[in-house]
Amino acid sequence: MESIKAVFWKPDPAAQMRKCNSLIRSNTRKLDRDLNQLKILDQKTRQLIVAANKRGQRNPSQAKQAASETRIFAKEMIRIRKQSSRLATSKAQLQSVQMQVNEAFSVRKIEGSMKASTGVMKDVNSLVRLPELMGTMRELSQELVKAGIIEEMVGDSLPDDQLMEGEDDEAEAEVDKVLGEILSGKLGKAGVVEKPVTEEPEQEADLEEQEASLDEMRGRLEALRS
Predict the structure, then answer these.
(1) Does residue 129 fall inside a structural domain?
(2) Angle (nearest 5°) at CA 43 between 199 and 45
(3) In a domain, 46, yes or no
(4) How many domains is the chain built from?
(5) Which residue ranges have biased composition labelled Basic and acidic residues (predicted)?
(6) Structure confidence at residue 154 (pLDDT)
(7) Contact 91, 26 (CB under 8 A)
């Protein structure tokens, strides 16, 4: 029945606008959830860095290993922050799309015609490639094409090497910057411990727990990417 109606009646602009806005809000909520998860991961990684550094200071024999762990955790934090920045940028693009879509429908209501927007086309083409939003952004792009706001979409995915570019080889200077920010200059170099004190086993962070926490954190980060 709906297909027969589509032949004789044009889509209702108000219904199209509601559907587009609903999809945009759904995508925005997804980004907000992912950003909140990344914020939690950032805080947890900060705690792991501080705990590893304290363990190295308490026990000189573990200073080198602890220093290595803090750098591993710092690299994870860099990845988390890069992804968080990417999602924040995507959220801003999505909000821009919503403003332009609503404006396009308003113009259509006044002038009786819809003009394709290159600005929306550019933002949607970028967002549809985002792994976190790929499915729902495809649906939104189809609705925007039906409404005449954008033209048919082309390639909707990026090569994996482009998506992950720069995430595996963080510069040592960037790692040092993160550690300096978190430890406020309290980081000792490998094999050198600042103000060594008697080791307190009951207060020492358990290595296996730290490794488990790191594995869990990496799993969550990968889940956000996929």
Answers:
(1) yes
(2) 55
(3) yes
(4) 1
(5) 215-226
(6) 52
(7) no
- Give yes or no for a contact between 61 and 211, defined as CB atoms under 8 angstroms apart: no
d(CA 5, CA 2): 5
Residue 17, SS3?
A: helix
**Angstrom distance (rounded) from CA 43 to CA 9:** 54
pLDDT tens digits, one per residue of 151-201: 776 554 444 444 444 444 557 888 888 888 898 855 544 333 344 444 444
Does residue 210 lie within any of the structural domains? yes
* Torsion from C-alpha of 119, 125, 126, 127, nearest 10 degrees: 100
Burial class (CB in 10 A: 0-12, 13-18, 19+), 201: exposed
Supply angle C-alpha 100, 101, 102, rounded to 5: 90
**Tens-digit pLDDT profile for residues 92-123:** 999 999 998 888 888 777 666 666 677 888 88
Q: Residue 153 in contact with residue 124, Cβ under 8 Å?
A: yes
From the list 33, 34, 21, 226, the residue with the least C-alpha distance to 135 is 226
Q: Write out the residue range of the structural domain in which residue 20 sits.
A: 10-156+202-225
Residue whose C-alpha is closest to residue 226's, from 12, 34, 25? 34
pTM: 0.71
Tokens read off for 129: 């490639």
Is 44 a member of any domain?
yes
